Amino acid sequence: MRLAILLIILTTTFCLGQSDKAGLTFKTKYYEAVDKWIAFPKKEGDSTYTFGFIYLDDQAGFTFDYASKFIVGEKGLKALPREFQESLKSRLAPNTANVAVLSSKQIGELGLPNQPEWLSNYKIGSETVPYLKNIGFHYNHVGASHLALAPLTQAYQTDPHYDGLEFELAYAYNALKMFDKAISVLKKAIANNPENSFFYRELGYAYRYSNQMDSAENAYMKGIEISKDDFQKSEMAVNMAQAYYLVRNKEKFNKWAKLTRKHAEKGSRYAQFIDIFEQKWHEK
């Protein structure tokens, strides 16, 4: 049975790559330390480090399981008695501090197993398409699309049209500038489900950034036509307006600026972008 998640944001102001006499270097992003024992930087003026285990719950996301605190002793790291018996699991926020991954030697000094026994509970169904899609979603969500590709492509080979999978895979490809692969996935996705406006949004993006402007316009126009979300419509429109602003194509820019203003809320950032583009039109 899964324990409840206590939402605690673990943040700090320590610098990237900080290291100290404990031999710890705090340069690893939390999403790159999945299934690892880690330590957080100590607070200024403190002598103890918080340590525990990071894992990825396919439903809840990136999670830190608190173990205890340690100090640096003459013979290495020394774990302090845990303050309480209850499990303490913390959802990790995007601004979570960089962590130090503990070495096998440090894990031994703290008397820890290689992995906690309870971890297997979170690996149940780890080869299934729903699990793999969710893992990919969580990596995409934190900007780690390079880590999303493996689970998403594995799932895609089994059930390409599983709900949400094609979007996540195309999103990852676009984030990694692998536009040809994104286009290939999205064409098949649209053939299977031509009424999903998110497919056209990602397809328009892929075409735009691979400099296929006519195809980008067609994809975005279709997405705007079928979408019921004005924010999404304004996002597609402003992306195209920006593309023509950059090449100073006034006629095309005006077309997409008009569409942006039609669907964007007054004073929204997308509407403001159009104002800025117009103000700076004659600047180099």
From TrEMBL:
<dbReference type="Pfam" id="PF14559">
    <property type="entry name" value="TPR_19"/>
</dbReference>
<keyword id="KW-0802">TPR repeat</keyword>
<dbReference type="InterPro" id="IPR011990">
    <property type="entry name" value="TPR-like_helical_dom_sf"/>
</dbReference>
<dbReference type="InterPro" id="IPR019734">
    <property type="entry name" value="TPR_rpt"/>
</dbReference>
<feature type="repeat" description="TPR">
    <location>
        <begin position="197"/>
        <end position="230"/>
    </location>
</feature>
<feature type="repeat" description="TPR">
    <location>
        <begin position="163"/>
        <end position="196"/>
    </location>
</feature>
<protein>
    <submittedName>
        <fullName>Tetratricopeptide repeat protein</fullName>
    </submittedName>
</protein>
<dbReference type="Pfam" id="PF13181">
    <property type="entry name" value="TPR_8"/>
</dbReference>
